[in-house]
Amino acid sequence: MPTITLIEHNGTQHSIVGEVGQSIMQAAMNAMIPGIQGDCGGACSCATCHAFVEESWVAALPAAEDTETDMLEFASERRDNSRLTCQLVIQDSMDGMVLHLPESQY
Ligand code: FES
Known about the structure:
The structure is a single chain. The chain is built from 3 helices and 5 strands, in the order ββαβααββ. The protein has helices spanning 24-30, 55-58, 66-72, and strands spanning 3-7, 13-17, 50-53, 82-84, 98-100. The longest helix is centred in the first third of the chain and has 7 residues, at 24-30. The relative contact order is 0.30. The protein is globular and about 30 Å long. Helices cover 17% and strands 19% of the residues. A 5-stranded mixed sheet has the order 2-1-5-3-4. By secondary structure, it is α+β, with helices and mostly antiparallel strands. Bound molecules: FE2/S2 (inorganic) cluster (FES). Residues 25, 38-40, 42, 44-49, 71, 84, 86 line the site of FE2/S2 (inorganic) cluster.
């Protein structure tokens, strides 16, 4: 199973092991990682699962669909590498991925 690293805004690192087919949001919630709230349960309607993808991993991800792009408009601190982790389905190819969590989600 792939291991993904989530880094809090204060630099605290968490490595989570996710199941393929599960969203990164769900894996982070299961691991009780601070900074991922997932208020809508993964319905792409809250933007509280926002994360910044480490630049070296951005191109490895599928492009965001319109619903994710639209919802990212409501994410604070939005950047070019912003994604909603409920829309990122864990694949074996994500092993080693690094995501940074925005300070606004604490
Ligand atoms: Fe609500 Fe991702 S959990 S948009």
